[in-house]
Amino acid sequence: MDLLNALVVFANFVLLPGITYGAQLALGALGATLVYGILRFSNFAHGDTMAFGTMATILVMWLLQAAGIGFGSLPTALLALPAGIVVAVLFVLATDRLVYRYYRRSKVNSLTLVMVSLGVMFVMNGIVRTIIGVDDRQFADGARFVFTAAQFREWTGLTESLALRTTQAVTLVVIVLVVAWLHWFLRRTRTGKSMRAFSDNENLALLSGVNPERVVMIVWMLSAALATLAGVLYGLDKSFRPFTYFQLLLPIFAAAVVGGFGSPLGAVAGGFVIAFSEIFVTYSFKKVFGYLLPVDWQPDGLAQLLTTDYKVAVSFTVLVLVLLFRPTGIFRGKSA
Amino acid sequence: MRKLLIASVSCLVLATAARAEDVKIGIEMGFTGPIETLTPPMAQAAELAMKEVSDSGLFLDGAKVVPVRNDETCIDAGAATAAAERLVTSDKVSGIIGPTCSGATSAVLTNVAIPNGMVLISPSATSPGLSTIDSKGLFYRTAPSDAREGEILAQIMTDRGVKSAVISYTNNDYGKGIASSIQSAFEKLGGKITLSAPHEDGKGDYSAEVGALASAGGDAIVVAGYADQGGAGIVQTVLDTGAFSKFVFPNGMWGESLLAKFGSQLDGAFGDRPGSDSPGAATLLEMTKAAGIDGNATFVPETYDAAAIMMLAMQAAGSAKPADYKGKIMDVVNAPGEKIYPGELAKGLKILKEGGDIDYVGGSAVEFIGKGESAGSYREIVVENGEMKTVKFH
Q1: What is the complex's ipTM, to 2 decimals?
Q2: pTM for the model
Q3: Interface check A283 vs B, CB under 8 A
């Protein structure tokens, strides 16, 4: 019983939140890492692409809601998601046509492109704030929980409890599907193969007849779709606020770099590493030990490695350690 | 040109050289700096009270009150001190309304007011640290100290049967101050704070914070943050994980957005926010409106009251000398006596002239405790069916 209680506490406060947050970071990092792998620059506007796509989804969702269309116990936003993705993709493609293409054709170095993306970031920042405002918005509807903490307690009769949110379940299903699909797409399809060829050796790929503009377009489409997906899932689970999305850029890049910038599998792993290192290191194990250890051995304090004040520092320490000892990241991406 | 300059300077000197029987009161506020948007209506409110007193003709045998504004800058203690010295030595004011920021207030109090025996009434300095300075009866404030809110909240928590709690505060001076004052007051009442940890505003994920708080455990969680910032993130995560079922919110959390977001999920949550059921606040709002002042702005009632209290104390002492009237300040503010509301300063002056007693209530229902700081009126609030309900006043 005590063992079960300890497990449940751990699952409720470390495992589940870690997996959800990790999955959200991973989706964000996937988009950033694809752009880096193929276009060879860190896209600073990625966080704001997330915000833009989420905003488009919310706007479509409002239309659906006004028309009285719902999605049962699932959030209506999921229904609006395809439309949101389309809007975000069109917007990003327009940005590429208006801004990035010029610089790509002038063969500027990647640092210049990073600065260009910084400019794009500020513009997108402004557009999102102008259209939907700066406020914090909750747009999840439908049933919030698959089961609540109170229900779980009733079923199991344990002292400790566990809650599973609909959004957590959706996030987990989506990340599994997306990663599987992306893996298949990059490994098995002709387009995916040409993208990987372009990423490995641009000149060789060009000589083999890969159409660069087409690869670039597909990368942007994928990255915008992934960003919207990540943004909407994150927003459903927490809330939508343009400023927070902008700040998400840091953990997302940390995740991408830790996993190996340019490596999709690495981005997923990196997302989980960053999320768990933030939550695990700052978690207080007092309650868990309380169930596991005999009374005499129990800690008086909180049994916490670091206080939560250092949460952000933890992910950056992981980042620095990885860069020091394995600069190409866990999955050997391009050196960041 | 030179003649024009001399002429205008001498005009200025003539204009500022008030008549002998006039009483000058300094208004030292942060007219520039971080609170520059707050101070203009505050200064206007002080001047409104001064005009009311001057117009009555009853003040100290028909004396007029002349306001002298000066900039404290809020953050530069040196500039604030210099401004106060100028008010005392060259403008020869009889008292100062201000300073407005806690840091500037403590500098002016120790460097200028105490050495010169000058009375300061600050309308807005809330730092608990100011209560620890030995002010020799020269310092008063019409805004309650943050420590006071901590005491009120700790009392409400104890009354409602909370025996242990955790605190999650926003990581800034306000958050730290209020968290430590709640903790010390609650522990004095026999409660236990198992963990008091900060949260950053505008972050993506608060699972780590809530995990640590949940592990520390307690009857309730006190969220000392902002309703549209990290405070809401903490509340959301607590609700999601079922870590705590009882919420306690200090002043900063009670925004409309809190209930718009969480609605009846917060049923049973409680806390406090400033507010009184005194009719003075409504009267003052009308007066400021008529005078073209933004009466809804922060600290406007407190500033009107600060100026009114200073002038009423002068009247009670029959003298505008700080040494004479400083002893009368507590008398005019606290019971016993006739209650005086905004717009009734003439009535108060008359009663005092006739040797009577007044109990100044003003726009902020001011009552001085301790060495002379506002007790502050707070409403105790509970959430019922997703709506805020005031249950009583403290």
Answers
A1: 0.73
A2: 0.69
A3: yes
